[in-house]
Amino acid sequence: MVVPSTTTTSDAGTLPQTDALPATDNSQFESEMAALWQAITTDSVVVALPAFFPEGAYVQLKTIAGAQDDFQNRLVHDYALDIGAVHALLGDGASSATLVGVDVPAEYAHWIPPGVCDNSVGYFEVANSRIVYQEGRQIRSFGIASMISWRGVWYVVHLGAILRDSDSGVVLDPDVGWGTSAPSSTC
Question: Which residues face 162 on adjacent strands?
């Protein structure tokens, strides 16, 4: 899937990085997670793009050759696969499942400095956040493999898996109830 590039200055990815630690108690984060949830219930990666790390930011961040192709052909592709896998997990209940919240373990957020993980600028990263939803009377959850910051905002960069063995979607640690987050260092 090719995601259209944004050429206006309203694209956060065109602006330089900051060292602001993202918060989750604001309307922007809530809007991003609502978009991700809608995408999961409808199996549409396009709807989930507001919650995804901006392409321009990724191109600024990475020191690898072909960062734009890597963004399109690996990151967005994997995001779509993982959204499809969660949608399949919800099954017939997808349209009636409701988002309860997203639990981001702030105590696990850590700064990744420039020069680490093929990055030219630093960013905050948090692994193993939990999307909590209700299906019928049952609370359920699954993990977000990794979110990273750009300009003080959390974005999903890997939903189900950072590394994968096959070209298929992954649902990270689905659980009945709120589930449990664990610390992790990832890139």
Answer: none
Q: What letter would DSSP give residue 93?
A: G
Regarding pTM above 0.85, the answer is: yes
Candidates 107, 68, 90, 85; CA nearest to 167 is 85
Count of beta carbons in the 10 Å neighbourhood of residue 103:
19
User: Tokens 């260092």 identify what position?
Assistant: 185
Percent of the chain with pLDDT strictly greater than 90: 87
pLDDT digits (tens, 9 = 90+) for 6-35: 333 467 888 999 999 999 999 999 999 999
Confidence tier at 182 by pLDDT (50, 70, 90):
confident
Q: Round to whole Å and give the CA distance between 132 and 71.
A: 27
DSSP secondary structure code for residue 22 in this structure: P
Q: Which residues contact 39 (CB under 8 A, 6 or more apart)?
A: 45, 46, 47, 48, 51, 83
Contact 35, 27 (CB under 8 A): no
Q: How far apart are CA 120 and CA 138, in angstroms?
A: 44
